């Protein structure tokens, strides 16, 4: 007997007890249907005939590929069939109202890391679900603690759904024979300690003293303050980094830095940091901006960026502690504008 339930059975079970839960389950199922189609397109690669750039840019100025637009359309169409009042997507400037009477709002990154596609590296869809407030649009500007569920699809060697639902984080693998997501890992728990970090170290000269101090300690290994050697990973694909951390622990940093456009980090709060932070916390890990818990932050604008430090709880705590004790942001950066002999000193 197969004891691994398919997504539908998993979501269906106690749905009738709680209307918000039932509505969130319907959203997850709708997105899963779209993800099956998107996984098929991504797996076909250039054979799907949607390679290349569309010529447009998203609201943040990133160049859009055709596949970004296809992903956006697939996810939006799916959400129209679910109880969703409004959707905010990375690919559009403003939230779109779908069914004003519906109980939920969804923020979504339809295809995160699409720049990785030509290299055949994992990419993903990230989503955040929250109950609709009295005013639909203001719902998106509530803190991340307002989320009732979140998740991400990872299109990699396997297509996997990581789902934060009912305070638990579970993983489902797409069975290509049946096109069903099947529960393959229950109640994921991130180890509290780690000896693995992930950061784009080509930006080192732009970092604040806090981030540089923390990473320098990791690099010092047994001779440094942490007292043990570290391994490093950087995939450049948020969903893949998050999944690695869920499976074997680790800490990921995309800090703010001194470059123009990076003063609030690179990642977006509403459809990247908030949902990934919910996954981290419900799996026993943590997520912080270095100065505040990500889930307590509210966006001021739809595409607001935020520094993100996530993963094993003790490592995130150590990075937070470095931010408390080291001088304010960027004062010790080597970047010309902020270096000791720079314009602002
Ligand atoms: O959101 C875009 C994204 O591709 C994330 O998936 C990833 O974590 C990050 O940007 C990679 O940044 P960089 O190009 O600086 O390595
Ligand atoms: Mn993204």
Output the keywords.
binds 6-O-phosphono-beta-D-fructofuranose, 8-stranded mixed beta sheet, alpha+beta, 345 residues, 5-stranded mixed beta sheet, disordered C terminus, Fructose-1,6-Bisphosphatase, Chain A, domain 1, single chain, D-Maltodextrin-Binding Protein, domain 2, globular, binds manganese (II) ion
Secondary-structure map:
Blueprint: H1 7-12, H2 19-44, E1 53-57, E2 63-65, H3 66-80, E3 84-89, E4 96-97, E5 104-112, E6 123-131, E7 149-155, E8 159-165, E9 168-175, E10 180-185, E11 196-198, H4 209-220, E12 231-232, H5 238-248, E13 251-254, E14 267-268, H6 269-282, E15 286-288, E16 305-306, E17 308-311, H7 313-325
Parallel strand pairs: 3-5, 11-12, 11-13
Antiparallel strand pairs: 1-2, 3-4, 5-6, 6-7, 7-8, 8-9, 9-10, 13-17, 14-16, 15-17
The CATH homologous superfamily of the largest domain: Fructose-1,6-Bisphosphatase, subunit A, domain 1
Radius of gyration from the CA trace?
Answer: 20 Å
Taking the sheet with the most strands, its summary is: 8 strands, mixed
The count of strands amounts to 17
Number of domains: 2
The backbone outline, from C-alpha atoms, is globular
First-last Cα distance: 70 Å
Overall pLDDT level = 92
Provide the β-strand percentage band. 15-25%
Structural class: alpha+beta
Count up the helices.
7
Helix content: 25-40%
pLDDT under 50 segments (min length 5)? 332-345
What would you say this structure looks like, in words?
With 345 residues, this protein is of the alpha+beta class. It has two domains: 7-185, Fructose-1,6-Bisphosphatase, subunit A, domain 1 (Fructose-1,6-Bisphosphatase, Chain A, domain 1, 2-Layer Sandwich); 196-324, D-Maltodextrin-Binding Protein, domain 2 (3-Layer(aba) Sandwich), CATH 3.40.190.80. Helices cover 28% and strands 24% of the residues. The strands form four sheets. It has an eight-stranded mixed β-sheet, with helices on both faces. α4 (209-220) crosses α7. The longest helix is centred in the first third of the chain and has 26 residues, at 19-44. The relative contact order is 0.13. Residues 90, 109, 112, 272 line the site of manganese (II) ion (MN). 6-O-phosphono-beta-D-fructofuranose binds at residues 112-113, 200, 236-238, 254, 266-267, 272.
């Amino acid at each position: 007997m197969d004891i691994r339930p398919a997504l539908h059975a998993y979501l269906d079970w106690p749905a009738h007890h709680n209307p918000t839960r039932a509505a969130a389950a319907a959203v997850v199922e709708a997105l899963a249907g779209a993800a099956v189609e998107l996984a098929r397109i991504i797996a076909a690669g250039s054979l799907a005939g949607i390679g290349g750039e569309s010529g447009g840019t998203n609201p943040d100025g990133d160049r859009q590929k055709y596949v970004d637009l296809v992903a956006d359309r697939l996810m939006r169409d799916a959400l129209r069939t679910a109880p969703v009042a409004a959707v905010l997507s990375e690919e559009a400037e403003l939230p779109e109202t779908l069914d004003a009477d519906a109980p939920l709002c969804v923020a979504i990154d339809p295809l995160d890391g699409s720049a990785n596609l030509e290299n055949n590296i994992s990419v993903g869809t990230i989503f955040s679900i929250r109950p609709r407030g009295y005013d639909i649009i203001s719902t998106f500007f509530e803190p991340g603690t307002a989320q009732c569920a979140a998740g991400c699809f990872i299109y990699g060697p396997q297509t996997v759904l990581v789902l934060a639902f009912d305070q638990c984080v579970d993983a489902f693998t797409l069975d290509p024979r049946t096109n069903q997501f099947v529960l393959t890992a229950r109640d994921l728990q991130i180890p509290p300690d780690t000896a693995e970090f992930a950061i784009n170290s080509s930006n080192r000269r732009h970092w604040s003293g806090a981030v540089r101090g923390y990473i320098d300690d990791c690099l010092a290994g047994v001779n440094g303050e942490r007292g043990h050697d570290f391994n490093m990973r950087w995939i450049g694909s948020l969903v893949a980094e998050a999944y690695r951390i869920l499976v074997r622990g680790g800490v990921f940093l995309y800090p703010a830095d001194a470059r123009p456009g990076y003063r609030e980090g690179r990642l977006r709060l509403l459809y990247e940091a908030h949902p990934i932070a919910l996954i981290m916390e419900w799996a026993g890990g943590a997520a912080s901006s270095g100065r505040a818990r990500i889930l307590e932050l509210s966006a001021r604008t739809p595409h607001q960026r935020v520094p993100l430090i996530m993963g094993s709880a003790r490592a995130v705590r150590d990075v937070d502690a470095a931010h408390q004790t080291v001088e304010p942001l960027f004062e010790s950066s080597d970047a010309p504008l902020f270096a000791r002999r720079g314009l602002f000193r």
